[in-house]
Amino acid sequence: MPSQPRLDPSDILVSTTALVNSGDLEALSRHLEPLDAGLTATLLERLPITHQAIVFRLLPKDRAMSVFERLSPGQQSDIISGLQAADVADIFAGLDPDDRAWILEELPAALASRMLHGLTAKERQLTNEVLGYPKGSVGRRMSPEYVSTKTTYTVAQTMERVRAHVHDAETIYTLPVLDETRHVVGVVSLRDLLKAEPAQTIAEIMHKPAVRTAYDSDEDAARACTDRGLLALPIVDRENRLVGILTIDDAVRILEHEETEDSSRQGGVEPLRRPYFATPVRRLVTSRIVWLLVLAIGAALTVQVLSLFEATLAEVTALALFVPLLIGTGGNTGNQAATTVTRAMALGDVGLRDLAQVFRREFMVGLSLGLLLGAVGALIVGIVFEPRFGVVIGLTIVAVCTLAATVGGVMPLIARAIGVDPAVFSNPFITTFVDATGLIIYFLIAKTILGI
């Protein structure tokens, strides 16, 4: 049997756009028919917002649900906003409560309220339970639909519970074990149940649980889930009573969301929360303009420093030649340190208690880098210009690298201590700070060495 030709997403995008623009919905429906859920989701990510709802409405109901679940929360909210009320109700009702919470955070308040009221009483209660926890907490990301068992139950009784809830539970592969007061005392896997004798009690085969409270950071809980290789992590209230579970797929989704946000802010851009091609130009502009204004204000400080040493530059104009080299070296050194420490914090390797140790380590790293780069810089500048210029450049590089690495290393920790996203305090602000202070150091060293 001959294999089907491989479909090119770029060709599909071009033909889909042409069919949407032509208004031939019947031809567009036939065009979409051979696409699987993954390829359709990729197509939607590259279409403008105005076209997404049109394409989505033409998908068969089963495939539409599968495609919808593959999209980012931001894109899901865009599609919901563009669909008719009847279409939206069916899609929204088919989602798990934790997935609804992701979408509701992206929707305007009036539309979010209307979506909630369209649910059945049971589904609305489950969704409100999740939404009742603070933003950024794992309670917002857990699923309240789970299968649990008790220490006194037998394996046979537990398997009956699994079979009874196999269609409505988020997962059946990991079951929290409760005592008579609903406290989590263990976990048992489906593999454990299949291996055990039907008459054995759960207390005989359960394992020690790893749990997180619903008020813990969603990123910390997700990291715990993935680091330990757990399929599901029980989530408890402050009295250690079970309220939900965090599954491995939701944990990965949280980490991907957080890492995208961190990498965006480290580059001076607000996260888009939706695919690039599905983001309107207006939103691309707004995601960047605030940061550019902040950095422009910071750059004004650098200009102010230069004006303070205008007389020095007028006396020795060659000093101006090295300004880009020095501020570039300092900014890059600070960014490297900030990125390294921010990543270590995300992995749990570094915490607030390690501030002094990070300070010492980054000071030594910056000093070592400065000595190596300064020696090279002093040698080259001393040969091309004159030895005293080489000394100025060499000493400045040592000082700037040491300062930049130290500040870049401790700034994310200070940000965490005051409750600010460490990524916000890293690259853009560190670059601005190091530029201004590095120039001051440069001109003070130059005035001392050159006697001007």
Provide structural commentary.
- Pfam families: CBS, MgtE, MgtE_N.
- It is built from 21 helices and six strands.
- The model is unreliable at 1-5 (pLDDT under 50).
- It has three domains: 9-137, MgtE N-terminal fold (Alpha Horseshoe); 149-266, CBS-domain (Roll); 281-450, Orthogonal Bundle (Tetracycline Repressor, domain 2), CATH 1.10.357.20.
- The chain is mainly alpha-helical and 452 residues long.
- 65% of the residues lie in helices and 6% in strands.
- The protein has helices at 9-22, 25-32, 37-46, 49-57, 61-69, 73-82, 85-93, 97-106, 109-117, 121-131, 155-165, 190-195, 202-205, 218-227, 248-266, 281-308, 310-315, 323-346, 355-384, 387-417, 427-450; strands at residues 149-150, 174-178, 184-189, 212-213, 232-236, 242-247.
- The strands form two sheets. Strands 1-2-3 form a three-stranded mixed β-sheet.
